[in-house]
């Protein structure tokens, strides 16, 4: 995974602004304004524009930070030969994040506003889910080269794994249907999806050299 794709470090002021953006996305979706962010973060709108540029650029930075945190798990996992444990940690963190109430609410509001704010919506997807899938694909390709997974299209493998981890839980939340709303249930699903992925892409067994020898008969 190319470290240059990860976001730069942030300071305390960035953290206040990013926290404000995340909270406002959960309340207002794409209708969120820079005025509201400035008020929530306790700074001026001029400071926001001078430090982050446009609202779209600010959203990009916030999403990059989240993807950077998730990708950091993968980078650390590359140092371990325990593939199942690495994927299970990733899956568990993924599910925990998207089961936070403000995250689910933000996703619903953003989806509802996507047609009205298409550029912002595309930015959020490209820098969020799209970037995470790319990072995961790069990690999977490295794992395949180490012989820990059967080599296949790493981008398809990454998309499949994320779909398996997500399951139908987010749709159930969106339609106010009972879902995996506790850590134990999410852990069981993470184990099920990761184990299914590992079975599907288990390395090919090594070929056993033939031991047949010509026999001489007297």
Notable features of this structure?
single chain, 218 residues, disordered N terminus, 10 helices, elongated, Tetracycline Repressor, domain 2, mainly alpha
CATH topology title: Tetracycline Repressor, domain 2
Radius of gyration: 22 Å
**Portion of residues in helices?**
55-70%
Kindly estimate the percentage of residues that lie in beta strands according to DSSP.
under 5%
Q: Helix/strand/pairing class, anyone?
A: mainly alpha
Task: Look at the structure and give the CATH class.
Answer: Mainly Alpha
Q: CATH H-level name... which superfamily?
A: Tetracycline Repressor, domain 2
Q: Provide the number of structural domains.
A: 1
> What coarse outline follows from CA principal-axis ratios?
elongated
Most strands sheet:
none
At CATH's second level, what is the architecture?
Orthogonal Bundle
Could you list the spans in which at least 5 consecutive residues all have pLDDT below 50?
A: 1-8
Distance between the termini: 63 Å
Series of secondary-structure elements, N-terminal to C-terminal: HHHHHHHHHH
Helical segment count = 10
> How many individual β-strands?
0
Return the average pLDDT rounded to an integer: 84
What does this structure look like?
The structure is a single chain. This protein has one domain: Tetracycline Repressor, domain 2 (Orthogonal Bundle), CATH 1.10.357.10. It contains ten helices and no strands. Helix content is 69%, strand content 0%. With 218 residues, the protein is mainly α.
């Amino acid at each position: 995974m190319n470290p240059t794709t990860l976001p730069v470090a942030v300071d305390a002021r960035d953290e206040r602004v990013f926290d404000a953006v995340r909270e406002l996305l959960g309340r207002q979706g794409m209708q969120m304004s820079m005025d509201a962010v400035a008020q929530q973060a306790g700074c001026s709108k001029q400071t926001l524009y001078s430090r982050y540029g446009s609202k779209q650029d600010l959203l990009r930075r916030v999403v990059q930070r989240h993807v950077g945190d998730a990708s950091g798990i993968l980078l650390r996992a590359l140092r371990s030969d325990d593939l199942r444990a690495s994927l299970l940690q990733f899956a568990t963190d993924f599910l925990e994040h998207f089961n936070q109430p403000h995250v689910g609410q933000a996703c619903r509001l953003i989806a509802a506003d996507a047609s009205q704010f298409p550029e912002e919506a595309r930015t959020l997807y490209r820098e969020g889910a799209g970037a995470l899938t790319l990072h995961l694909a790069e990690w999977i390709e490295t794992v395949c080269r180490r012989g820990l997974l059967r080599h296949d299209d790493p981008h398809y493998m990454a998309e499949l794994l994320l779909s398996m981890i997500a399951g139908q839980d987010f749709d159930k939340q969106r339609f106010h249907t009972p879902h995996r709303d506790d850590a134990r249930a999410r852990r069981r699903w993470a184990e099920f999806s990761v184990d299914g992925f590992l079975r599907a892409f288990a390395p090919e067994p090594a070929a056993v050299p033939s031991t047949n020898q010509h026999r001489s008969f007297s």
